[in-house]
Amino acid sequence: MGIRLFFAREPKKERELMKKKMLAVLLAGTMAASMTACGGSSSSNTADTTAAAKEAGDSAEQTGEAKADAKDASEFKIGLITDVGGVNDGSFNQSSWEGLERAGEELGVTVNYLESATDADYAPNMETFVDEDYDLIISVGYMLADATRAAAEANPDTRFAIIDDATIDLPNVTSLMFRAEQASYLVGYVAGLTTKTNNIGFVVGMTNETMNQFGYGYCAGAIDANPDITVQQFNANSFADSATGKTMANTAITNGADIVFQAAGATGLGVIEACQEAGVYAIGVDSDQSSIAPNTVLTSAMKRVDNAVYEAVQELIDGSLEGGVKTFDLAAGGVDIAPSQDLIAPEVISAVDEVKEKIVNGEIEVPDDKESFEAKYGDVYQLD
Length: 384
Fold this sequence. Notes:
CATH topology of the largest domain: Rossmann fold
Number of strands: 12
Shape: globular
Strand order of the largest sheet: 2-1-3-4-5-11
CATH class of the largest domain: Alpha Beta
CATH superfamily of the largest domain: Response regulator
Distance between the termini: 76 Å
Order of helices and strands: HHEHEHEHEEHEHEHEHEEHEEHH
């Protein structure tokens, strides 16, 4: 039977640290001798150089230990928690997971997700990842804000990121925010130039500051493109009720809408289904949803949640991930309309490209709240 030896450090690293300490001491001794020869105070200089030697030695040891403690990418574990829409919502939960999957494949980290069937699942899902020592826990959506805040406060050494919420002011929480109103303005502009009835619809999953940005942008873009347009507006009060989404879309269609935009998570799948059955256009959200119904989804207001998640993982690995708010806008490629544009008339694409440039250079300022919207458009948006 062989003998197995266990070391607190690898022998090579230990030797390197000893060399650095010896070099520091030799340098300190040389400095002391030189200063004594020049007539300096022996006791004072000896104390100074001894302190310098100790500091240099300690620094060398700390550097070596930091290198020894540095984690390889394969040692990082990142978990994602969905809202009630689930990981296959065809929207931002799915896009978030796709970004994390790509990080797993390309960066070599371990990734996993937990779905939340109800609001009551958020806190237990957080606890599961914390108990399993995950390095970064990503919450998808503002509905997880309370659970994320509580978990982050209780576990200051664990990193958290949350999408679409900027209310948590903790050093271990990174908020990933998007200028959703900019992408919504672009699809509203498409709708305004494409509609044949001058009547379009909008279905939102829930109304709050974040979700209303979709409505402000959509209405603003549609009105700027077509001042005679009517925008029907509906609040489904759920991100996981496709039946309600379908009912609301059918109501809009019955009342003359020939295009319906949905910002409603899995509820929006019902909107797309209703539009497909009625032979009118739907507009998708968060990701390019044309694959759901290629002849129905005119375009989509995209938030590149996948890229934001991937970037957060990269920064975690290289040690640059910081707490606070990170905002992704049109200029940075964080939001846009979908690249699938087969159903959009060429002249409409050209017009949208022009307004896109004006948004980027600041010539067009898209409203993102009630005050800025009503200052230009009046009380048109009714869901706030």
